Amino acid sequence: MEDINNRMLRETEKCVLCGSCKAECPTYEIVLKESFGPRGRMHLLWALLHGELTDTAQVYQRLYSCLLCGACKKRCPAEVDVPMALSLIRSRLSVGLSGRLLRAFLKGGFTNPRAYHLLFRRLYPLLKRPLIKRGLLYEGFEPQLPHPHGVFNSERGIKRGRIALFVGCSVRYLQPYIGSAFVEVCERLGYEVVISPKEACCGAPLMANGMIREAETAGRKNLETFAIMDVDIIVSVCPTCVYTMQNRYRELFGESLKVVDSVDFLSGHSKDLLRIISQKEETPELEGLIYHHPCHGLYSLGQKETPLAVLNTMGLPIKGSLKGCCGLAGTFPLRFKALSDSLLSRRIGEFQKANASLLVTSCPGCVMQLARGIGPERVLHIVEVVAEMLDSNVC
């Protein structure tokens, strides 16, 4: 990988200070201060690299308050990669005791995820209230068993192809029902699904916390794991995982993992989905849907119309769509709870104004965060909606 300092310098020198990046920056929209926007952060980064600024608590606050959503990169005429530059500088910032403890926890968690999950389940009665208060979990959440790994075959005896599902940490350990819904959809389409027990974290949470070497280690492990799998395609139900493995791996160590997001996978099978649904005698009634665009789905993967087209294919009543960060962004609520809550409140207000009954999204993190404000029964991942529409029990 290119030297970290040179990479950061290159990004800061590309910036022409036009300010276009601030138009959709979620933190600038709330705080309305230059240093809480992309242009201001890049100027702070430039000053740090040139010795005109020291590493202070105020600088730390500004550079860590970026959600790494990618909205600025999408709008930038010079294509400055602000999220990457800020991820890199975070590896050089003084993080204090709390930051070191968080990094140690993340490193341990992603190195021994099953052990940490077992410990979390046992300690959950004690952790429940603090986690809900910090906005990391929603009221009513209960830890579940990890999503099983192995081979899942279509009960209809059709083998259309073989899919490797990259489950992701959140779905594997906190939201296994999302993974199960995707497997159900694939089985109805005639696919065999393989889930590897050796899958590692995609690396996005590690990069967001400045743990660049750890992210590279996780990435290389995933490359090795999926390289030996005899599959036709790799699919993930998380747009952040998809973007990280497709793009950030290449920037970290020169290789990438070709992964398809679940929205794009469903879009490619629209005709098949419509055919199966049309053969059903009755379908579930899902009224008043609003689609929330996850940041990485919208800005990084360019999924502006695709998810809406998937839902429209199934004849669902779409009342509109929302874009704007939900405020989760991994560990962001731990450091910036007020900002996180403000962003969530805006999304809740938009949902309520639309007078919709159900919010659909395609990011497990967004599901977790939005459920905290709207209620888990009213927030679904798009693969859950599709699985319900295809459910053979109502045929």
Beta percentage is 5-15%
| Helix content, binned percent | 40-55%
CATH structural fold name of the domain at 279-394: Rossmann fold
Rg over alpha carbons:
21 Å
- If helices are DSSP runs of H or I spanning 4 or more residues, what is the number of helices? 21
CATH architecture assignment of the domain at 279-394: 3-Layer(aba) Sandwich
What's the total count of β strands?
9
Q: What letter string, H or E per element, gives the SSE order?
A: HHHHHHHHEEHHEHHEHEHHEHHEHHEHEH
Plain-language structure description:
Strand 8 (358-361), helix 20 (364-374) and strand 9 (379-381) form a beta-alpha-beta unit. The chain is an alpha/beta fold. Helix 3 packs across helix 6 (82-90) and helix 7 (96-111) packs across helix 8. The strands form 2 sheets. Strands 1-3-2-4-5 form a 5-stranded mixed β-sheet. The protein is globular, with a radius of gyration of 21 Å. The protein has helices at 4-14, 26-31, 38-49, 57-64, 71-75, 82-90, 96-111, 113-133, 169-173, 176-189, 204-208, 212-227, 239-253, 262-268, 270-278, 295-300, 306-313, 332-335, 337-353, 364-374, 382-390; strands at residues 150-152, 161-166, 191-195, 233-236, 260-261, 289-293, 318-323, 358-361, 379-381. 54% of the residues lie in helices and 10% in strands.
